[in-house]
Amino acid sequence: MTRGLLGLVASGCGGVETWFRTELAEPAAQRGWRLAITLTPTVVPWFEEADELDKLQALTDLEVRWHPRMPSQPKPYPTPDAFIFAPASANSVAKLALGIGDNQALTALNEGIGVEGCKVVVMPQASADKRRHPMWDTHVETLTKAGVVVVTDVAPGALLDLLESS
Ligand SMILES: Cc1cc2nc3c(=O)[nH]c(=O)nc-3n(C[C@H](O)[C@H](O)[C@H](O)COP(=O)(O)O)c2cc1C
């Protein structure tokens, strides 16, 4: 069964290289999602060091991206039907709430927010030290008001359940 195109985005959070593929990307592919995987530049070397990049690429016919396209190149895929951004660092949550798209991952997410029928689920992974920042609650509230589903303490598999519920 093909569910549609799922934008999967990961950022530089501790442990991501150990679970992102096995607990999120592979189960998503097994459930029938076609994957459009985009990584922040921070996390790419983490996946590289863990020998994960090729394994992620093997899950999808679409290029795993972190570089923006050249002006001469067409968009490599349409806006996904849904997004999961997990784990989302405090840095990327703040930028997303402000609409900053200074890397390919944030550009893709920014373009997905507000698209009718495109569910965007964000799972921040941020320590209390990071969440203490005076703008943290405002960032989460801004995203929530924009229709983004912000969840915490959810197992990666449950993120997929969220997409599949109405
Ligand atoms: C080993 C390591 C683990 C980190 N874990 C987290 C984390 O869990 N959450 C977080 O918000 N930042 C974490 N950081 C800091 C982010 O990687 C840093 O803010 C970075 O700029 C995030 O970039 P990105 O949002 O573009 O991926 C960690 C940094 C390192 C080196």
Automatic annotation (TrEMBL):
InterPro entries, sorted: Flavin_trans-like (IPR036551), Flavoprotein (IPR003382)
UniProt GO MF annotations: catalytic activity
Cross-referenced Gene3D superfamilies: Flavin prenyltransferase-like (3.40.50.1950)
The Flavoprotein domain, residue ranges: 13-151
Stretches of the chain forming a coiled coil according to its record: none
Transmembrane domains' residue ranges: none
Protein name, UniProt field: Flavoprotein
Organism for this UniProt entry: Lentzea aerocolonigenes
Taxonomy of the source species: Bacteria, Bacillati, Actinomycetota, Actinomycetes, Pseudonocardiales
